[in-house]
Specification:
Largest sheet: 3 strands, antiparallel
Helix content: 25-40%
Shape: globular
Order of helices and strands: HEHHEE
Mean pLDDT: 83
Structural class: alpha+beta
Radius of gyration: 15 Å
Oligomer: single chain
Distance between the termini: 37 Å
């Protein structure tokens, strides 16, 4: 039987008190990022990893995430028209575990 080596799923988590794009405010976006960073810090075992905020990201880290095909970029005209790139890159980032087998994008759109 074939073994599943990779599974990609897109989903949006709804958190009480936080809007969805494009209605999320700057404060909600940064508060949600803080909340998720706290959750990521509590991951254990295979899920333990690092969070990389886009704002102030080191260029070497950014390039590695691009090379890994993990990093999302601004500039999508559809997202811009919908107002989903307001305040870019504030309140946005990516978490991945040590083995880079579990990723969470924060406020991607």
């Amino acid at each position: 039987m074939p073994r599943l080596n990779q599974f990609v799923s897109g989903w949006v988590a709804l958190f009480n008190g936080f809007g969805l794009s494009p209605g999320i405010t700057r404060k909600q976006r940064t508060d949600l990022e803080k909340l998720l960073k706290t959750a990521f810090a509590n991951f254990q075992g295979d899920l333990k990893g690092n969070y990389y905020p886009l704002l102030g990201m080191d260029e070497n880290v950014r390039q590695q995430l691009v090379d890994d095909h993990f990093l999302f970029m601004s500039g999508d005209p559809n997202l811009q028209v919908a107002g989903m790139e307001r305040d870019w890159p504030e309140g946005r980032g990516i978490f991945h575990n040590k083995d880079k087998t579990f990723l969470v994008w924060v406020n991607e759109e």
